[in-house]
Give the backbone structure.
Amino acid sequence: MRLTLLCTLLLFSISGLTQTVVRFINPETKEPVCGIYSKIFKNETTFENCGGSNKEGFSRLRIRNVDPNAKYYFSFNYTKYKPIWHEIDLNNRDTLIVKLIKEDYYYDRSDSIFSSQGCSSRSYLNYYPRCPRTLEDLPKDIANKLKQHLIERIGVKDYNKTRLIGGQIIDVDYLQSINEKTAYSLCFCYSNIDAGIGMYTSKIKLDIEGNILEDIGLPRFVGVPSSMEFVPYTEILKKVRQNKKYQDIRLKAEMAYEAKENILIWKFINEIFEDNGTYIRNESIYNAHNGKFLRIDTQKGEWVE
């Protein structure tokens, strides 16, 4: 099942253009958007080309050799915006007008809100897996099984704070050809604005039947009341800033799951590049639920300018 067309998309002809063109528009300002990248796929899973929009919001959709027996698709898939998967005819002189609609779950990182932007993905040789953005993009039985598992783990209330925002779906035939078990590698984001968590992203991996191979990086909330409580991000950040090592504007924040303790942790990272070529990375670790300092993890190495 492929992504449905979710963005506002218009199709009309512009004279003078010799091939299909896309133009990206900000629907609020009505202005063109520069630097937006999109892709063309052949028969859904074969990558053909990509390109970015210019200052006028235009991006040409073209490939070297058009296969008359193949289907071609325009793909636009940014976490921040509603996705597009649209069949195109590269012989037409049409322009696709794409209005960039922001996803309601998306939060930019700020001084008071933490957001991570997605999950890592695996690369395959000459094969591009489908990318789901909602549970409706999964087979119905897989989606139902996954939903039940997540509710049993984190409860209905916190399940409603999660969204499927990306990942990879591997076709059965390709899965067998590479002798791989993971058929669904799914990226979810969890939001808890009262705690200052705009988007915390983590993956869950399933086999072809929907069985769990690697569980989601969220604590088991059900039956563990302490794991459902959070100290606001800003309060913990204030503690960190009291240490002179962590007052630098380049201070980075990350969130992670520690399965052994069934907790989410904050990592406040300070990287130092010394003149003698020494690289030092200090991570100040805090329990996200009670705000307690846990430890400092330090990594050292060398860097070359």
